[in-house]
Batch of 2 targets.
Target 1
Amino acid sequence: MNASSSSEIMPMRPPLVPLATLIGRERRNDKPLIKYGQAALAKKGEDYFLIKTDCVRIPENPSSVFSVFAIFDGHNGVSAAIYTKENLLSHVMSAIPEGIDREEWLQALPRALVAGFVKTDIEFQRKGETSGTTATFVVIDGLTVTVASVGDSRCILDVQGGVVSLLTVDHRLEENVEERERVTASGGEVGRLNVYGGTEVGPLRCWPGGLCLSRSIGDMDVGEFIVPIPHVKQVKLSNSGGRLIIASDGIWDALSSEMAAKACRGVRAELAAKLVVKEALRSRGLKDDTTCLVVDIIPPLHFRIPPTPRTKQNKFRSLILAKRFHNLINKSTNKRSSIGVVELFEEGSAVLVERLGKDCPSKTNSGLLRCAVCQVDQPPTDGLPVNSGPLSPSSKPCEGPFLCTNCQRKKDAMEGKRST
């Protein structure tokens, strides 16, 4: 009786969890699964893309992993697109303060993207080459998506319920009134191409140079008022995740955002990118380089995905299973999360002062000041706080991030200021 009574009051022990499972949870940190697909058709061979899913904020720390997806649409040659693909990520990361946690990293990322884009432009222009490139650069950390872009490549977000959001801004002079006004105010001229007899044809262009875009990386022969300062938008996805479609203008000249999203719903990302390119080709033909990345951000609850088709015979069956799975996710998440996303940050100003903030100059342990753009340490006498004008007795000692002489010169040129 006593033994029976004592056994009844003993607490139930929870089942043991294998060590491998605990380690797996620690490494995964319950981050979403990233699945992606890529497809492209070349007309001029000037499109390049970057896919990197193993980036880390903290070396040798798997829990700090994040992913980068980007498209670079070159013009006037491929040098700018190749250089930007190979260097932009490292330039962005060099502008991130060391020793910060994940929340601080996400808050610092928009400013670091601006610094990284400008530094990439400065370094490329030093090579003396005249090509240029658009850049649409996407950073995915958990359910937080940060997109920085110059030019007319585009990134859209398709979430549960068929809601499509544009995460970039097109910097085409033909369509962007604010950018036309900025370029002319900075010293550029905007107009169409004049042919014999005075007839104007084609889209609006910036002169000198004849570029249709108001923002790009490179293009040193056009004028510094064509700026590399990106539009940046940061959003937090709901628990249902979402799909990103990142593509060059070869897609968007043929398809609207809604058409692109609709063309590939219900299928795996690997096939989805091919379907978007196929639809653009069917709609317009191959008139430009056409590149598409599709990225699915799948929350931990939905890690189980349909099997990849092994043979041609069961491909159709796999598509049906994929569509059923997509519908199942929609039904299961209807009760758990909202359809929309939370917008954390958005800024598109082309004024560097407004994008780098008003923090005090960054001093290093050596007493030098670190340039907010190129990240090179300089003596205080070799540069200026970014908000400062000419030095005067009334100048405040701390008026914004420090810029070295070269980056200060770049800032002034982008704003149409002439060197004295």
Target 2
Amino acid sequence: MMGSSYGSGIPFAFRSIYSTGDGSVRLPPSSFLMRTAMRISRASWFSFLRRVFHYQNGSRSDLGSNPFNSEFWITLEFIALAVQIMAISLMLVTSKEEKPGLPLKTWIVGYAIGCLFTLPLLYWRYQHLYLIQGNSDLEQQRSNEESRVRFLQRSYLMNKSKAFLELFFAIWFVVGNVWVFDSRFGSFNRAPKLHVLCMLLLAWNAISYSFPFMLFLLLCCCVPLISKILGYNMNMGSADRGATDDQISHLPCWKYKQVDSNSDPENENSECCICLAKYRDKEEIRQLPCTHIFHQRCVDQWLRIISCCPLCKQDLRR
């Protein structure tokens, strides 16, 4: 017999007690496992992993849609780079008495230089994120052709620099493995501190490079298997949920003032894209963080279902 529960607003089904082929009775998955799966599927980190997976397997035309360009993730990247640079600097200072083979110290210095060149790219990504989210005059800035050309030129240059650095780190990772594990240099006996530092940096890079593969195993193998066993769709649990009344109430709202009837009737701000009705004088309208406006009653109902803009799909919680 199939049972279902909608207490959380997310459908799932599971079998109750049933008999197996040999006549024994099998119990349904424990409530603890079910609750654990539900908590994981609704966790913010699980939703982030799904966003990363869809971004990597979808269109990458918009830098702003990259989940790795959030302020929190950029901060984590900056901390990781700062820790690596500080550890390398400290180890080079404290291991002056060590006499490693030339390739080992060369690899460490080259890796540190690559980290230093990554910092300007990290700052550019943060600045780009700030312009998208915090600058209300962004549309006016991009409407200026000269500013738009400069912006595209900087984006092209930074993207090329990022691709070059990624290629450098990939080649340097292979070179580091050859130099560190080559017994001819005797690095561990002659410079144990630098050798351990190289091993740690290589391990960090190995984890970073294997992240897409581990993400594929998690979302394409482990999650479907767990969902099959428990009878609960974990992918549905991580789907976008609606905004709360408190989040909606903090969005700006005012009464629409009808402009001159001789103005451009094709203006995109003259009608609500949800109900497709033109705004009337003194109607309540609401503006989202992406600067798009809608009827208050229309967008409030929309946001209670899914917390993103109906036009540009920008998440309300960004």
